[in-house]
Specification:
This protein is of the alpha/beta class. It is built from twelve helices and eight strands. It folds into two domains: about 160 residues, Rossmann fold (3-Layer(aba) Sandwich); about 100 residues, ProC C-terminal domain-like (ProC C-terminal domain-like fold, Orthogonal Bundle). Strand 5, helix 5 and strand 6 form a beta-alpha-beta unit. Helix 8 packs across helix 9. The mean pLDDT is about 95. Belongs to the pyrroline-5-carboxylate reductase family. It catalyses: L-proline + NAD(+) = (S)-1-pyrroline-5-carboxylate + NADH + 2 H(+); L-proline + NADP(+) = (S)-1-pyrroline-5-carboxylate + NADPH + 2 H(+). Its main location: cytoplasm.
């Protein structure tokens, strides 16, 4: 049975799970104009969570069953340990007409498809900078999801940052890099600020400079199209201050440590997904 195309001009989107990540995605969708808030619905038993969504116009329904019934696209944004129970509970409502999406870390498409009873499923791995519209999200399409389905979901997650499509076999490595990577960068920002303090800067100034410097460097890497090695060379004058700092980083094995961190996190993700 072929998937019924989602009506891109009029479709309704539902979130099963109304936590912080769902809120970030919903806010991004509304802010970017991908969908008006009156075409987005969710449910949560907690009043403060409901108010967060109501504050920007999202419909609050009385139970998850209603969210699924009213939506053409359903995003499962619940914790990984409960996603199986939630999908199985809603299975009678999850027809092939509905495009299903999961952002539950470590939960594989083959399991999601089995629990739902069909394969029109897309797995997405966003990361925490979704809260400020700067997410890195990777999509993998299930067997029954069409290219049009993938494009629609890429547009939804494009409202909170950048998106890539990739085979699911890469998702443990994605977890090690973009999923866990923000923590490595926060450590780098903290360390740069500490270095500034050690060199005599006031703490507040050092932290502001460190944060903005990382943001600016990342923006250059994203927007210039230059290889990061070239960007590094552009700021590294012969016998200057920057090469002295780079030399210290190389002596400390800076690049090798970051590479090892990504690989270690990817291996841990692999252990989790094997269960």
């Amino acid at each position: 049975m072929e998937a019924v195309p989602i009506p891109t001009e009029t479709y309704k989107l539902g979130f099963v799970g109304a936590g912080k990540m769902a809120e970030s995605i919903a806010r991004g969708i509304v802010r970017s104009g991908v969908l008006p808030p009156n075409r987005i619905a969710t449910f949560h038993p907690d009043a403060s969570r409901r108010q967060s969504f109501e504050s920007f116009g999202v419909h609050l329904l009385s139970k998850n069953d209603d969210v699924v019934e009213e939506s053409d696209v359903v995003i499962f944004s619940v914790k990984p340990q409960v996603v199986k129970d939630v999908v199985l509970q809603l299975r009678p409502l999850l027809s092939r007409k509905k495009l299903l999406v999961s952002i539950a870390a470590g939960v594989k498409l083959k399991d999601l498809q089995e629990w739902a009873g069909h394969s029109r499923f897309i797995r997405v791995m966003p990361n925490t900078p979704s809260a400020v519209g700067a997410a890195a999200s990777v999509l993998s399409l299930g067997g029954g999801a069409t290219e049009q389905d993938g494009d629609l979901i890429a547009k939804v997650f494009g409202s909170i940052g950048k998106t890539w499509k990739a085979d699911e076999k890469y998702f443990d490595a994605v977890t090690g890099l973009s999923g866990s990577g923000p923590a490595y960068i926060y450590l780098a920002i903290e360390a740069l600020a500490d270095g500034g303090v050690a060199a005599g800067l006031p703490r507040e100034l050092a932290l502001g400079l460190a944060s903005q410097t990382v943001f600016g460097a990342a923006s250059m890497a994203c927007h210039t199209g230059k290889h990061p090695g070239q960007l590094k060379d552009d700021v590294t004058s012969p016998g200057g201050t920057t090469i002295a700092g780079v030399h210290e980083l190389e002596k400390g094995g800076f690049r090798g440590i970051l590479m090892n961190a990504v690989v270690a996190a990817a291996k841990r993700s692999q252990e989790f997904s094997k269960g």
